[in-house]
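Handout, page 2. Input:
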Amino acid sequence: MSKYDDLKQCMPMAEFQRTLSGKWKILILWYIYVYKVRRFGELRRQLGDITQSTLTKQLRELENDGFIKRTVYPQIPPKVEYTLTELGHTFAPLMDDMRKWSEQNLL
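Output:
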């Protein structure tokens, strides 16, 4: 196997890591998956130590990468909800598997 073949095999995992890197992204996706719909304040309370700016940044990245959908309701005060997209739902079985693996091997 050549170096090119090694790199070619690695590319999907490298892209996966790039897309979902960030201390909070998998937990953000998990909470949205479990609760179906999450608002910003709910996520912030559930995540605990996350700052407002970090949560905002990670939500924007997940939205830009197509994992979540942001819905803004035109009311005062503004109401914003986050849900999984079709792509986000395809990631849900992997999160279930990661949770099961963690229960069996890390707890």
